[in-house]
Amino acid sequence: MNYSIEKVAVLVGAQRLGNVDANVGFVLTDSRSLCFPEETIFFALKSDRNDGHHYIPELYRRGVRNFVVQDVPQDYDKLYPQTNFLKVVDSLEALQRLAERHRSEFRIPVIGITGSNGKTMVKEWLYQLLSPQLTVTRSPRSYNSQIGVPLSVWLLNEHTQLGIFEAGISQPGEMRRLQEIIRPTIGVMASLGDAHQENFTSLEEKCKEKMLLFKDTEAIVYSLDEKVVAECMQSLSYSGTKLSWSVEYDQASFYVESIEKQDITTTITYRWQNSLKGKFTLPFIDEASVGNSITCAVVALYLGVKPDDLARRMADLEPVAMRLEVKEGQHGCTLINDSYNSDINSLDIALDFMNRRPDHKGRKRTLILSDILQSGETKNNLYPEVADLAEKRGVEKFIGIGEALRSESDAFSRLQEKYFFATVSEFINSDVFKGLRNEVILLKGARSFGFDQLTELLVNKVHETVLEVNLNAVVDNLNWYRSFLKQETKLVCMIKADGYGAGAVEIAKTLQDHRVDYLAVAVADEGVTLRKNGITSNIMIMNPEMSSFKTLFDYELEPEVYSFRLLDALVKAAQKEGITGYPVHVKLDTGMHRLGFNPKTEMNELIARLKQQSAIIPRSVFSHFVGSDSDDFDSFSEIQFKLFDEASKMLQSAFDHKILRHIDNSAGIEHFPERQLDMCRLGLGLYGIDSRNNEIINNVSTLKTTILQMRYVPAGDTVGYSRKGKIERDSVIAAIPIGYADGLNRKLGNRHCYCLVNGQHAPYVGNICMDVAMIDVTGIECKEGDSVEIFGDHLPVTVLSDVLETIPYEVLTNVSNRVKRVYYQD
Ligand SMILES: *Cc1c(COP(=O)(O)O)cnc(C)c1O
């Protein structure tokens, strides 16, 4: 929708300088994102860090002629002829006011979503559930701030039948503005969570502030099971319809009768408005997804979606991937992979992202795009728009995949180079695919087109020995273990020993992203590394050294305390820094006899010493099972638990604040979920190994290498040092660049174990050397350069650990640092 510049001036209450006729359709706040200069109005925003006024000369040069400013440039009429300046007191407020006025042009339902967690997932899923019957305009990605919300609302247009917008706040006072701009008719509270209070004094205060969004709505959707939310709703004077959902209270508008988790799906049976019964199955099992799907179901039913349609669409829900991944591709290409829902707004953002990266200088910019599904526009409107955008955003080569794009190929006539294919496989088999060279490629495809396969082929296969780490598998494992736990049970993820070999930093980022309550590492330095890499989660240090206390305090790392000597030294160090109430974790020795206070004899003394100082406070108390992985030790575990239960209760009763109690490790979670207490500690399970039965849940790490050289060795000859590898038949022997210095144990040599070459067993021949090993590939179809799996997706690490008569932990943690870790997720 276009507005005349006169109208904009009136709407935002500006003094207009310059007097050129103009219509504006695009609102810009970040000069780097400029796309359609003639129709753009730039708002020069001032923040603590930056001042948009600095970009006026550059934008003028690039063709922008309409500016909203707080300070009019000197000699503007000479320097900037034919230009409109709208002078306002506050540019941000003007932007918000423009969006607010724009919003008031629409008499349509608008959903406003707030909450601390899951806003974007709820928004995207509502979009997936409702867009088959309504034309929806929604916030791009997570545009939910004081700037993001007006930019989102500005996207409402004459086709829109429903708006869905997120509202995020970081301090008191902000929601009122967002409410005025979004003016939702339906309010949705996604999960409030119990996250850290940033700028609020309490969770209630934060909740109430968020609920300001619901002013003037006709209905509010919220969970009765979130206590704070339920209480705040109770005290809200509200005349609209309260649409609550609950697992616990059957008087909720949407009562969840049951939640049944299968391997990869969850089935939810419900009763709606006390009458209608229904159920749906969603393709996720984690708690967050389940809660968010229920929130979405309530909105959809309220908006008149039929239960059958709801169930059908729920089954097809797609994960919400927010990330634009950048990967090194083959033949000098860089791949930008955007698996976010494909629609024109997100295409615009992705193209903008591509242009902002420094690496397209001198290289061709290529867009590989699939048909855009469910856009709500007819294809003769949509694709010319896409073509226009691609051209304006500097795409030099366009590859369209899908029937709709192919039939609309005429729309792309202005692009220099363009190709169209019906399917991904047609493209893969073409010369266009083979000819990709030295380009920056943006891949954007609706999931059903199978772009995963395409990316797989395009990314650079690193020809070295690498440990590939599948971050999705980490999340899947996390969720698998979470499925044993109550919603409120907290989780510590153990990422000691550099994340059991997988690399602590990336694992920690992933876990933080999935909101685990604590991360635990062995020593302070590991904690510092995490902090320096942007990890803000709570971090526990399992083996604090006496020399590291200052570091602990400086980086907010919470130590384990296991002895009086450590306790006293820590208290003294904290007192010296003037610290009070520093959280620590008390370890009790219930049978491991490694570290910890004696729960039988030392509790009184421990409590007394803790109480006579105020420098540190016990945040949690814990112990560790010696044999939760085997039924053989069940009676011993029972004794351990009893000892712990009594001693930890004793500690708790000496203090007023809640002390978290925890004892279950990975195997314990599975074997004794009834002993989950307040928190559990997940270690090996995260990395996909079920130590109860030595099976792999979701494999995380795959150690791979490639064949360096192959040779024929006749029977009677030997291979390797000390002539150990006697060749009994004429053989083909391959050398691979991995040796004991990389963590390939020498004991695997001399045919004690094998690796996989093109899916077939290739035994190690002779002694494994420091940097190289030799394998027998006789009869296996292979060539130099082929990939070899040492352990991983197809060869469980437990095969190696069994041969070595050890546990998988040792094999995983022995992969040496010189082996490159490569992280991926789908
Ligand atoms: C390593 C460790 C864990 C994790 O054990 P897993 O068997 O790997 O789950 C839990 N607690 C403590 C104290 C640990 O040292």
From TrEMBL:
Pathway info: Amino-acid biosynthesis; D-alanine biosynthesis; D-alanine from L-alanine: step 1/1
Residues with PTM N6-(pyridoxal phosphate)lysine: K496
Ranges of residues in domain Alanine racemase C-terminal: 700-824
GO MF entry, a single one: acid-amino acid ligase activity
Pfam families in the record: Ala_racemase_C, Ala_racemase_N, Mur_ligase_M
The UniProt record lists the keyword ATP-binding: yes
Enzyme's top EC category: isomerase
Binding site residues for substrate: R594, M770
Listed cofactors: pyridoxal 5'-phosphate
Catalytic activity, EC: 5.1.1.1
UniProt-listed GO biological process terms: D-alanine biosynthetic process
Catalytic activity: L-alanine = D-alanine
Active site: K496, Y721
Keywords assigned by UniProt, alphabetized: ATP-binding, Isomerase, Ligase, Nucleotide-binding, Pyridoxal phosphate
Source superkingdom: Bacteria
Family from the record: Belongs to the alanine racemase family.
Task of the protein: Catalyzes the interconversion of L-alanine and D-alanine. May also act on other amino acids.
PANTHER family (alphabetical): UDP-N-ACETYLMURAMOYL-TRIPEPTIDE--D-ALANYL-D-ALANINE LIGASE (PTHR43024)
NCBIfam families the record matches: alr (TIGR00492), PRK11930.1 (NF008897)
Record-given protein name: Alanine racemase
Species annotation: Prevotella corporis
